Amino acid sequence: MHHRSLARRSLLARAASLGAAAALPPRPATAAPLPQGAADRHHRYEPTPESLARHRTATWFRRDKFGIFLHWGVYAVPHWGDDDWSSEWYLYAMNASAKGGVHERHRRVYGAGFPYDAFIPRFTAERYDPRSWVRLFERAGARYFVLTAKHHDGFQLFPNTASDRHSVALGPHRDLVGDLFRAARGTRLKRGLYYSLGEFYHPALGTPPVNPYTHEPVPYTGYRPVDDYVRQYAHVHLRTLVDRYDPDLLWADGQGSHDFAGGAGHIFRPARWDWRGDEILAHYYNRAELRPHPKEVVVNDRFTASHADYAVVEGDKPSYPLRPGPWEACLTMSRSWGYMDPTYRIKPAVQLVRLLVDIVAKNGNLLLNIGPRPDGTIPGWQRERLLAIGAWLAVNGRAVYGSRPWHRAEDGAVRYTVGEDGAFHIIPLSRPSGRLSLPADLPLRDGDRIRLLGHPGGPLDWRRTADGCEITLPTGGPPGPGGPEFPVVLRAVRGVDR
Questions:
Q1: pTM (2 decimals)?
Q2: Domain end point (choices 399, 421, 447)
Q3: Among 183, 209, 223, 432, which lies 20 to 30 A Cα-Cα from 262?
Q4: What CATH number corresponds to the domain at position 456?
């Protein structure tokens, strides 16, 4: 994640690892080996624009609408940021001497001789219970999740042969990706993985880490020297994630070439660079397609490939436009993407529900981020907000899941969706009182019945007026979960209620 959107010399000799690399654990369930003749029964993708363009966005992605993003890694240990830097950018921020908040605080709290990698042993995950995470996601009404398999600091939550900078060799000594994927097996949750293509600092990118106070070289813990960062490192990681865990979604990031000044240096990749994204997409699509029972998978638009299944809009925006193609808004609950304590700019639950409604009405998905602690627990204020969203969806989910946009997404503070069964949904972002006046061109016909979801009463009275239509709302307390500030859903159907 970009640090400003609330979220992101010579080569060193091989760095000394903090611990010996552990043997790879048994593989979780993955795609079956490709049977002989499978390519004849299904379409094989080639790493070319023409071939990849045949891939269509997964039906489940367009239907499911709501997912959970998880930024979890070593940066959860210092868990600190400021107005310039989100916590998951700590490694870069401690090098930004010209923007001294994190840089000076690190010196004061940990000392100039304490490198970022000294946090790795403190990233323990000792209370990590992936089954409880999965239960929380289900209770939140989420239909998919995306876990940061590797963020910009280069620490990997999965074992692999390209590096020893991972959670089985170091820190937790657990396959954190595999544990969560196994816990979600057998649920309706689709499973996704985030992967940062570039890194803040990496010897093979020409950006070996240095002490930000002395400017002397420091080891890059777990580094195995490579000549080709893309082929021998990034693609090994990505193929491991695809082949070992069989994800339903791949979410790329860290693909650009940036220098945000402040003395922290150039990051992610050199100016002229090729991630060879078409090769990864073809491999991923083929693993999903060339099996006895093909499955639908999706990738976002950050692989710098010739194709993408959907677009990403990152961070809070003044407004979101109605888009014809599939897209996803990824947002945080607060200032930071990674765990930060104390935190600020925390969005109340009602704001998160309103954002979900607004984004879905405009043909998008909401990928809502949480940041677990280094011990693997999810802060209570994050859990409370997820459960509030889930309670709202339990009553009003028919206006969200499987919905599609109407030709106009909004009128003032009212949003519209069309359900899978053709029902028309009118969603005021906060509960109106008395009568709700709406434009005349809404697809309402004489004899249609309108109900307020979550309200025990019968159909609402409504009538046409000289310049529109008017719906009489019930008196009394708010329907369903939340209070009067939460969105409500008016469901209009043809002739009889469903």
A1: 0.92
A2: 399
A3: 223
A4: 2.60.40.1180
